[in-house]
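Lab notebook, design round three. We kept the backbone fixed and only want residue identities now. Task for the bench partner: fill in a sequence for the structure below.
Input structure tokens:
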């Protein structure tokens, strides 16, 4: 489990195919900030742009670690198939503060940035989420974008999906990789866990009534 509070910005520095077919995944080598790997062990979970991955090798001396990502995960996420900056968060410990919201590290869909512009001292980030995720998005609700816990300020249902508007303060821009986004950039989305269960309970109740 995670909180959506980014603990470091890393970089994918190398990718290696794990096989020759489309069913094979890739091995990623990532570079972490100085000291980031000091308390990391083999098998630990680290969310990379919001996707929970397992550390397969690491070197505190070089500040690099590797993960293996399946073809399925590559197909269902974005930003993990090429070199570049990524948001990092280590798994939540039982005694940690829950500064963001409960995040599982399981990407629910890929959205597209429709607007990213400075407004006053902050930035407005607008993202169009897939139609299938629209029912989980609400005003003042939580949404994870590339691993960052964010609050939805506006919801606008569109034929092609649901556009959400989010305010990013300067601290978020400076301490995450979200500042690299542009209009048209794909982003990983994870809906709020509570919304997921509420939707399931309501839909199951309606289904049972229909059968009665």
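Proposed sequence:
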């Amino acid at each position: 489990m995670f909180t959506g509070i980014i603990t470091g910005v890393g970089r994918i520095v190398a990718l290696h195919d794990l096989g020759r077919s489309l069913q094979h995944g890739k091995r990623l080598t990532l570079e972490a900030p100085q000291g980031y790997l000091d308390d990391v062990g083999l098998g630990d979970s680290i969310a990379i742009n919001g996707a929970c991955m397992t550390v397969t090798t690491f070197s505190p001396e070089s500040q690099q670690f590797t993960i293996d990502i399946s073809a399925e995960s590559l197909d269902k996420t974005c930003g993990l198939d090429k070199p570049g900056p990524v948001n990092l968060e280590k798994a939540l410990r039982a005694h940690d503060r829950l500064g963001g919201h409960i995040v599982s590290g399981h990407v629910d869909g890929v959205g597209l940035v429709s607007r990213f512009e400075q407004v006053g001292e902050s930035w407005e980030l607008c993202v169009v989420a897939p139609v299938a995720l629209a029912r989980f998005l609400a005003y003042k609700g939580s949404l994870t974008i590339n691993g960052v816990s964010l609050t939805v300020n506006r919801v606008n249902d569109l034929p092609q999906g649901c556009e959400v508007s989010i305010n990013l303060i300067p601290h978020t821009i400076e301490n995450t990789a979200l500042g690299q986004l542009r209009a048209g950039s794909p982003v990983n989305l994870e809906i709020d866990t509570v919304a997921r269960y509420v939707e399931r309970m309501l839909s199951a109740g309606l289904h049972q009534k229909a059968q009665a």
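Keep this in mind before ordering anything: The radius of gyration is 18 Å.
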